[in-house]
Amino acid sequence: MIRAMSAAPRPFPVDRRHWLLATGAALAGCATPPSAPKDEIDGSTWARACRFDGLEPVGPWTHRRYGNRRPTDYRAAEHGGRPAVHARSDAGNSLLRLTLKPTELPPGARLRFSWWADALMDQADMKDPQADDAVARVLLSFDGDRQSWSRRDHMLSELAHLMTGEPLPYATLMYVWDNRYPVGTVIENPHTRRIRKLVVQNGPGQLGRWVEHERDVRADYLAAFERPAGPLTAVGLMTDANNLATRAEAWYGPLTLRELSLTTR
């Protein structure tokens, strides 16, 4: 596992409110209201093909937007012979999310997902907060013991709760298709250690086709956060191009989360 740690946190500005707003707006786990149901996605062939064994969804798939930023457009589609979600970002940034009843993952839980992209963003850099865009991300959010959090993370969670009615997730793991860093690289969000990105695909070698991934979620969480995973609380998809003010486009196949014993039958 290759670990690329973020730079040391900057000192708190004198104006606490200004710092909170500027930093909170950049977090992928904290979207501002409204959280609109994506009915055309929730009732789609793609959504019906998603399976999360032993987990209970809380409501439909929702579109989580970030303040007044231009959102990414997510639509149910057919692509390359399979049901899909088509994500198109024109300098946009938003999240398609399914909230789950907090549940401990079974041993050997495997997440299977697929994505398709025709182009990457050459200037994207996940370690640079001014260029942290990605054509394709799959997100998992987890609960846990918040007593170990830093003062910074408690403040961000307080802001998130005030803005959205939801606290900052205890931890968010992002699986990312990247053009710069090797597969296996773990990169911390520059604003909070509660969000970490794991590169599972690198470079343009498989553009223009469906690419399949199967991940051991417990093992990946342990590698990224250096402690066992807590209850899973949400899954999501994210295509964003707001930092570079460019375009990004991807298709996502159905997601499944199943026990290892079930995947081998």
From TrEMBL:
Family annotation (InterPro entries): DUF3047, TAT_signal
Protein name (database record): DUF3047 domain-containing protein
